[in-house]
Amino acid sequence: MNKLLLVLLTSSALVACSKNEESAPTASEAKQPSVAAAAAPKADALQYPVTRKGDVTTNYFGTDVSDPYRWLEDDRSDETAAWVKAQNKVTFNYLDQIQYRDKIKEKLTNIWNYEKVSSPFKEGNYTYFYKNDGLQNQNVLYRKDAEGKTEVFLDPNKFSADGTTSLAGVSFSKDGSLAAYSISEGGSDWRKIIVIDVETKQPIEDTLVDVKFSGISWKGNEGFFYSSYDKPDGSELSAKTDQHKLYYHKLKTPQQSDVVVFGGTDAQKHRYVGGQVSEDGRFLFISAAVSTSGNKLFMKDLSRPDSELVAIVNDTQSDTYVLDTQDTKLYLVTNLNAPNRRVVTVDASKPTPENWQDLIPETENVLSISTGAGYLFAEYMVDALSQVKQYDYQGKLVREVQLPGIGNVDGFGGKREDSTLYFTFSNYITPSTIYSFDPAKGDTTVYQKPDVAFNSGDFESKQVFYTSKDGTRVPMILSYKKGTQLNGKNPTILYGYGGFNVSLTPRFSVTRAVWMEMGGIYAVANLRGGGEYGKKWHQAGTQLNKQNVFDDFIAAAEYLVKEQYTSSDYLAISGGSNGGLLVGATMTQRPELFQVALPAVGVLDMLRYHTFTAGAGWAYDYGTADDSKEMFEYLKGYSPVHNVVNGKAYPATMVTTGDHDDRVVPAHSFKFAAELQAKNAGDNPMLIRIETNAGHGAGTPTSKQIDLAADVYAFALFNMGYRELP
User: What is the pTM of this model?
Assistant: First the structure.
């Protein structure tokens, strides 16, 4: 269940799959910035919309803090809507004057246009897989029967006319005869659940509504468990959601009669609650957390209707989830007394920690684990790179799985009866390839290799280590075209996240491929606050240690400049969500170090983030301004909205957000943009690009992803001085 919690605040970086039909020159051959074409307007020539200043002030521990743009938090008011429209007009008028913007979009479109296929998975009488023909807005779920006949099962492209309604998840009943799938409209975290008969593909009951941060876990064919909050009154996007509840829905009964299984009392009040039924159907496991790190874990024996809820872990000081069960034997993954995680076993009759026995002990590398075909597959992160070991259920090492190269793998999961498993391998210059794996013999075979017009052999990707401000050694992966000269003049994007125990591992992205084909360097820093080196690495970037994350990012930029990969004139920083905070904080602390800043869907008002939607759940990483005077002063000291200084020159900035983002509400971005426009002293533009009918990033249609990537790259290159493509 804590895998669900890890994605509650994740980066929405510009990632996808792409291709380019033209070969760009190497950076050493690329033309230096040309001024032959007419320049777009300078900041002092831009006419920004007038942003009204209010007189709202909040007192924190005796300190009054002005909040002049508080009114922008009302994201459904007519005044805010008019402001959004006016800001977009200025931004798109600016972008329209960049002559090569359409050429970048063409490059992205061409490279994106290839068939993408997922690993197959078996449910009931069918084998299912996702496929996108190339430029479809949403991936389509197909199925194949025993005779090999293939047909469309669910096509999200038909859910809405503009492609903004996405398939957010699907879960099949034990025998595969029923499916429950969730949809997201306009990128919202609020979901609907539709239950269908897999043979007819027709709904068998009314649609469930107002579901949020939820899996779907079946109890036989009778019904399923799901999670949600009481929906706030009215339609205010930013309204706070606090008490998560686990419900049981019995099929063909009204949603109003769904039973609250956990979370209906003050004693069971938690912000994140999830339920998971064991593969054999015997146990229900419930995870409950007050923040995005640390969870309680409970179990209920479904074979006995009158069974009580039993606590496995009754505090939130560690992260623990159930990996599998065999009869009454539980297999748990935990970081309790093991910051890098371990696998333990225990009998369901005495499931508490004092009875746990190590099955796969903790090592010096961070563990992630999956099950399939009667085996355990332990994936270790070794300096953010994958290593996989196969174990049996007695904890005996079967083999180290031979991987195709140095990079990142996903997969190996499956049912106990599966005889073939699948995994994907990729890195920043290798498109994701699917491999089939024989768990009995250890043989690996290419199952599906994408036909991407990207020649990996023309590029290189290498890992370097640099030293942060306090002496900490930090890894970073650099990817670029072979032959690139280290002359300090290469357009470079430095990307980071640094929070919530999220690890940045090497993955191929079409948008990154286009950047590199245009002669750019793409750098990814594995900052503290992430999970690359376990719980200690995470905690070293939380709360009163959060400045470590910004120092790590600044040190990465300084390394790139010192080693002449680039210089400040050609350096852009990028990050989304918590990474948007990273960009906002570092650009306000060291504005002279960067030429371009690209904060996406960022957490930017650190004094009020916890008052919106489920934001209070992020307090484990951030702390809140209500905690103490020390915590308030620390947050105020780096909060991007509160650290824009009047009369200071900032990097060329394009803030990006979605008007329907109900995770990191757009008010963060609105306020930050307003502060920058009011106070920036330099010639650089301070723009905000607001995607309409879009949320935090998940389920964004392909067409909108391409448009956004083209706009970001055009803005970055133009403000590095390029008047034609490098």
Answer: 0.91
